């Protein structure tokens, strides 16, 4: 494992606990939350101590393992474990990786005894963590084929090692470009209201000395108008079969701007992010967040306390605004109604 992947680990597991990097405290403090039950993992997911679709999927699998340990001596062990799985899956509704990972793990232990279930769930969670790093590297390398010469890119939210098992999806493509000396610089949207771009992406890029400039979300159009970027690359939390994509709020605005300025707009995501049950964006549930995430900034009021808010965590970018999807199996191009179905068939657990 090369040094860039040792710098940032969102998830660490031992024989009896899972440690999740508390991303709420970054970039000031690097601290890990110890989790010994599924409820600990659910709480960490809900408060965004761990976030990013692939990362919360992996965390969910570890949460199911922790629940199997807690339920070891419980009558109707498998029935209770299934209830715990449902609770973990519902921790955040939009990112499909969470339900995918939990269902995948549960499907492998239905006929096993208690001890074998506990052992197998830990093996599966470890496997998902290791495989995520490998497939992110593959996503990064597929992304290389989309760019000629040195490029400057704009990205939104955080899609790196903090949001995955390691390396990253959209940020993984950026890492691969940097590795091959084909990256000029990255423009990083701050990503309001929780500043995942400013706090997390900028921190990751700084850790690895990747050239980057931080901008406010409202500057993206100006950056494109000045021809400072050659493309946009983002991640995803759920992708429908027609290409409609749920990602961090503000992604849709960036896609519209890229379309107007005739700049390619790419989405990098593993196949587990594609939802075979979602025909379009209308089938994707959108999580609503606490109003104080808009009214306050790290506990300090930045707006009147009585003002009403509208605070969806995600928006839907229509497939017609997306140039291509970058997956571990290759690049998916339009017409998405056909090409996505062809790529993801047989991927569901």
From TrEMBL:
Keyword Translocase: no
Gene Ontology BP terms: L-methionine salvage from methylthioadenosine
Enzyme superclass (EC): isomerase
Keyword Cytoplasm assigned: no
Active site (catalytic residues): 237
Residues that bind substrate: 51-53, 92, 196, 247-248
Site feature (Transition state stabilizer) residues: 157
Pathway of action: Amino-acid biosynthesis; L-methionine biosynthesis via salvage pathway; L-methionine from S-methyl-5-thio-alpha-D-ribose 1-phosphate: step 1/6
EC number in record: 5.3.1.23
Transmembrane segments: none
One MF annotation (Gene Ontology) recorded for this entry: S-methyl-5-thioribose-1-phosphate isomerase activity
Signal sequence region: none
Keywords: Amino-acid biosynthesis, Isomerase, Methionine biosynthesis
Stated family: Belongs to the EIF-2B alpha/beta/delta subunits family. MtnA subfamily.
Function: Catalyzes the interconversion of methylthioribose-1-phosphate (MTR-1-P) into methylthioribulose-1-phosphate (MTRu-1-P).
Protein name (database record): Methylthioribose-1-phosphate isomerase
